[in-house]
Structure of Homoserine dehydrogenase:
Amino acid sequence: MRVLLFGCGRVGRSFCELLSRKRNITASASISLVGVATRSRGCIYNPYGIDVDNLLKWEALTGRLDALLHEGGLILNDADEMLEDLDYDVLVECTPSDFELGEPARTIIKKALERGKHVVTANTGAMSLYYDELMEGSLQRGVSLLYEATVLSGTPLFSLVREGLPGCHVKRFEGILNGTCNYILSVMGMGSSFDEAMLEAQRRGLSEQNPWFDIDGLEAAAKTVIVAKSMMSLDIDIKQVSINGIRNVTMQNIEEAKRKGGKLKLVSRIEINSDGLDISVGPEILSLNHPLAYLEGFSIGALLLTDIIGEVCISGSSSGPKETAYSLLRDVLSIKRG
Amino acid sequence: MRVLLFGCGRVGRSFCELLSRKRNITASASISLVGVATRSRGCIYNPYGIDVDNLLKWEALTGRLDALLHEGGLILNDADEMLEDLDYDVLVECTPSDFELGEPARTIIKKALERGKHVVTANTGAMSLYYDELMEGSLQRGVSLLYEATVLSGTPLFSLVREGLPGCHVKRFEGILNGTCNYILSVMGMGSSFDEAMLEAQRRGLSEQNPWFDIDGLEAAAKTVIVAKSMMSLDIDIKQVSINGIRNVTMQNIEEAKRKGGKLKLVSRIEINSDGLDISVGPEILSLNHPLAYLEGFSIGALLLTDIIGEVCISGSSSGPKETAYSLLRDVLSIKRG
């Protein structure tokens, strides 16, 4: 299974590191990285497989991905040309999420699907905006489009539902999906102001892009849309999500939650009730015996109400680039298994 | 995929009810029940598939499983003969767990494996005592032996690790694996004595067999052994597990846990530390921010520390026969998918 990696920021680099670290797994599954395509830091292709350790070493030294000249790989000038002309089995798409247009990921994914290539993506923006179009594209070509990395970072949610809950109908979903917001609310819970907590989150480097996409709930809403479409087959649009971020959360709000015996969390909620569909992202007070209430810091989680076995809760203690990269690898392994 | 059900107590009956309720799933996966074998309530076999609704109706009326004469199925006298002579693809083994000898499940499973049949079992006793022998048998014949129902009831644990955490090394395991003990401790947490809580648990009908296997921690220990072998490849025996049950837990212990800001739970623990292997089942005070501390009543859960993505926690709100039966169905579907 020859992998072309498109985009090599923190998640892409973590993916390469994981390929190196878990060499026994990738070797036994015959997974090899044949290309890395970036738009500003060079492109490299080697049909026999790139030495990932060397790639990372030279990238660290030069900031470029095409510094591996001595390895005999092809150096290319155009990332899109690689996508369209070179040979690979699965595209791993890691470009930054755009929550307004979904580009360039949408176009990149479409091009790969049109060539009959499998696609694995971490792109929450593109998947939330173009889920139907992209899934349709994968179905038409009979290839896989997997997107575990778009929600819950490294913690398996879609694979849990696919393999662990077959035949179950998910009737309600609650999630803490944005690690940055959860971190900020946790720090505020220990007595810091919003601004202090925000600075602390930035120091921890968790917001690569515009942090307001996180803070204002848009990133969580995009994830909620993907869940609604993928797990609950709902035909909805992000415009239908009632979105409230945490920008205006005050110490008073945090204290009020404590007084009420709970914790303030940014909760994604999807519920079909007698009034119709309730799909929202917003601060909620979760009582301390709520399965998601104990999630602190960058941990994330989801609670599913199923028709067969009641509630199932899954959570993970971390949600950084390394964990997200693991979901990309899981999806590649899943395609390999068929 | 033709299913032979061996044993039809509460889990077996729930399995039949699930086949009926989720007819769309079983039909699309071509799963049909061709036989039910019991040692005291009759046996029935129909190679074209048994009408499960009729089976359940007549079983409710007569207490017998061979009351479906008018359907034209074969009525047999001997459960073992069915296992050894009749045609089926997968055995679903649901006889009561025996924690000392693992019988009759061990022999039943072996016979099916020797005939090259896939096996799905809910038998914690047999799997904890004969895991190596039975897995070896399945490998030799190139068939599947799945046992999701033996631990965490309906909540997927082994499938989570298999499909959701490929390549991850589980470094530590903590679990609340026995729903009955968790229920008793929860009721005690609300002010009841052990005896009152025990009676309440029995009223709720959760202990089919000798309740002391639950109370004294043996059932949780058997589950812990299966986890240790299956998820952590440890070569251990139940005799190596340090087992303390909840028989002697007092109101004072519960109050002490509260004073210390935590909850008393029966915790299964597997950890490899500098002193070697620590594998135990016993009452522990979990602090309120422990991911398993919020589990109340019959809920169950597990916390895995992995080498790649840190901690992953999965839990379920219920652990009765219905949920256990769902794990059997999940395993059958998983074998069908291949």
Summary: The first strand of chain A starts at residue 2 and ends at 6. The longest helix of chain A spans residues 124-141. The radius of gyration of chain A is 20 Å. Chain A has two domains: 2-154+321-337, 160-316.
